[in-house]
Every structure is written in C-alpha cells, then in structure tokens.
C-alpha cells in the first residue's frame, strides 16, 4: 500500500492550476521518475477539472487510484495511491490538508498561486506520515 502523490489545486475560472504538491517516486526506476511525476501532476489537474465543486470521487487511472475532493470554495486536493490503499484514509487526509492549507494560505493567493509562490511545506510530511510501511 503506497501513496505516490498529494496535491493541492485551485479550481478557478476557466481552469485548474496546481498550488502545491508532494511526490514519492522512490519506487520507480530512476529514469522514469520525472515522467511519472509529470503524469501524476497532469492527472491530478485533469481529475480536479472534471469534478464538481463540493464533490468527492475516486477514479482509477492505469494501476493507480486517484482520490479527489473539490471544496465549494474551489480548493481541491488529489491523492494518488495504489489500489490497496484505504479510500477512507485518503479522504481523511484530504480533509485535513485542505483545512490546514486554507488556514495558512490566504484565499487571495489561490487564483494566482503556483508551487513556487505558495509557502506551505506540510505536504511532504503528510505524504511520508501516511505511507503504510510493508514489512
């Protein structure tokens, strides 16, 4: 059971853009890591774009399960995990991350923000904390 990606996005008008993300691509071949990360970023944006505000969904994409939560204020979170990772845990994590993000990052910064301009550093910690260690 693994988490591969945790992203916070803003679903504005007309499109979705990434505010902050964390990735764990350590299980992939070194030469595949950047393309896997690009795939996860693209997939996160696409799923958030296709989800209605106020909705939660789980979407299967290749061998991954992508869990998305779009709040009614436009803030969205996406977790990309393997098929065995518990769905309930993913949505609990998304709730926690989006609540904390909205308290720490001004709503005025969401429409124009980018990973380089948003200062929110908790994603990497959450990604490693919620990894399920298999013996």
Automatic annotation (TrEMBL):
What does the record list as GO biological process? endoplasmic reticulum to Golgi vesicle-mediated transport; protein transport
Per UniProt, which keywords does this protein have?
A: Lipoprotein, Membrane, Methylation, Palmitate, Prenylation, Protein transport, Transport
CDD domains linked:
Longin
Any Gene Ontology CC annotation = Golgi apparatus
Q: Which domain of life is it from?
A: Eukaryota
Q: Which PROSITE patterns match?
A: LONGIN
Topological relation to the membrane, as annotated? Lipid-anchor
Annotated localization = Endomembrane system
A single GO molecular-function term is: SNAP receptor activity
The record's listing under SUPFAM superfamilies reads: SNARE-like (SSF64356)
**Domain Longin residues, every copy:** 8-127
Q: Which InterPro entries match?
A: Longin-like_dom_sf, Longin_dom
Similarity annotation? Belongs to the synaptobrevin family.
Put simply, this protein is called YKT6B protein
Organism, by scientific name, is Certhia brachydactyla (short-toed tree-creeper)
